[in-house]
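Q: Predict the assembly, please.
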Amino acid sequence: MTTILVIDDDRQLRRYLRTVLAGHGHRVVEAATVAAGIEEIGRCSPDLVLLDLGLPDGDGLLVLTAIGPGKPRVPVIVLSARGQEGDKVIALDSGADDYLTKPFGAGELMARIRAVVRRGAAALPDVITVGPIQIDQPRHEVTVDTKLVHLTPIEFKLLLELARHPGRVLTHRQLLHEVWGPNAIDQSHYLRVHVAALRRKIEHDPAQPQWLVTEAGVGYRLRDAAPTPLTQGASS
Amino acid sequence: MTQRDDSAGPVRDGRPPPQAGEPLPAADADAGPPRRAERATARSYAWALASVAAVTAIGIATFDYVTLTEIPMLYLIAIMLASLLGRGPSLVAASLAVAAFDFCFVPPRFTFAIAEVRYLLTFAVMFACGLVISTLVVRLRREQRDAVTREQRTGRLQAFTRDVASATGIADVATVLAHHLEDTLDVAAAVLVPDPADRLVAASGLAPLAAPELAVAQWAFDHREVAGHGTDTMAGARALCVPLVAGEAAVGVLVIQRRSRAPARLGADPRQLLDALARQAALAIARVQYAGQAREAELRARTEELRSSLLSAVSHDLRTPLAVITGAATSLVEHGERLTPAARGDLLWSIVEDARRLERVLSNLLQLTRVETGLQPTKEWVPAEEIIGAALTRTEEARRGRAVETDVPCDLLLQIDPVLFEQVLINLLENAIKHAAPPFALRAQRRGTDVEIEVADRGPGLPPGETRRLFEKFVRASTAPGAGLGLAVVRAIVQAHGGTVVAEPRQGGGAVFRIALPTPMVAATSQLAAIAGASP
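A: Predicted assembly structure:
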């Protein structure tokens, strides 16, 4: 059983999250303020924190600061509104693991939780499989639909970094830091051009990517499963 | 031989006198250290002496072949040459010439005594001729030099006026002014403008000023008078402060300091140029300020208009989906068990769909308010493929599997705010999905200095004569539910990027929404080359 701490000042949102998460067999602990949230983290040591950024007694970022950079630490998913891309990037760069844009559906919520909780649960296998893409780490080989594709060293590093966090968003800064090093963190255009080149090799249609998707203004995400859109089914 | 000797020499007439009460500028007062000027003058006196000596030598050598009347002519040539060096040397040359003529040629030779009185007349005429010639030559040269200076000054003023005309902000004007002054007068220049609290802050250059200089600048600004180095007021300061006055009000202060020990390159009267530049800069700053005020007023009016239309939108477009959600949810709560599974499913779906509609209206209203109240796009170079891919990913659910045909060159770059521009493409796609039929197409291509992006559909096409109105707020093209905000957001964001958007009928039926974004070719290719060539 996973313990999930919800830090949000809105009672209705907490109620919704409690219902959905409990329905999926998780234990839910709630807090409405930064102070209470930090206290609960120490008390019930949750497996995951869902964190709203706008809390009555301060910025949700304070919770991230309080958790500190120590590893391993509790994974955090930030809840925020559309249009606050800057805040999301700051939260992600300060240690949050992913974000959800309000309003979000239950399916999206569960998918994010799965991707984040899986983090660190098991060591990465030598061969990582994402949809049709297979990354053979020791042999530095990538196949798409069992066909070998040739990647440059940078493209390989980029793909590997994304694949090591399947389903999770990585910010421009994080990717630049991991692939190019600490001096390149402001060079988003390098990243964009190399992502475009990588897409041309691993996507069927690089203009309609299915796996390496862009989160505009934030970063990139390698999906861990094909999206299953909510459809009306018989009644549509 | 230099041109400096006249202005720095002992005789310094003919310069336009400094305007009453205005001191010499720092640049001029310090220009040309005296020792250098004296040396140059001494050299020109030496030249005067040498030319007389040369003529004397020629005269002695050719004495047997010429008569006594031709020799004064030769001396006149020497005086003329000396007059090219300035007034002083020409006077010296004239005197020396008379003396040398008397001593070497007038009988009895090699004494200063003269045999006949008529030679006195020859001397007088010779000296007078020398005087007239030298006066004329000196005046001619001065006029020529003044003309050149005037021309240079006019040229510099023109260059400044041209550069400052394209300035769009006070900082631009200040930078242009500082650059021009640094180039022409070899001084370090800074422009200070008042901040909202009326304290002077640097708009460009020379930052940060020391407290004494700041005090001088403040005084110059408050009194609208020149102050500082070389003036009557606070002459001890290291900087000269010239207020920038437009009409009645001071709009800023120009602060200049000498930068190096080198003399000013603009020999003649830099003060006039300085004043002219200051006047032009003041006008330019005033123009920019007026433009800013006009923009602010327009923004206020637009915000006001937006607020009133927002109220009407909230009352209608937000309440309708809310009514659906409330109705569906309450019937599920109250009569849930009496409904058939299919009816329950329908009600649940209308809640989902109207909640999404509510979210769309809200986010469009938010974006529109942001952009229309002056949010500036944070532009970055983004591959067209990436932004189009992002928009297609975000509309996956709304498209429900309906395909969009894409045609995007893989090396096409756009200079856009990725977050805002993604919204543009999402809105155009949602518009097509809502009002029209597939196949949908999304194309991007370069056309001249623009990049064109098209979203095309095979729907019922556009209402005739209404294509312009489509982009206005709260205008709905059909009876399909919506607030009529999507295309208004599209237009607002595209315009904030300096682009245009039009709607046209598509060949073979349907509609095309075409965005043209100005994207400099040179910039785009060099950007790409830089990335390809300089990967870290």
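Chain B has four domains: 33-161, 167-290, 294-372, 380-533. DSSP finds 15 helices and twelve strands in chain B.
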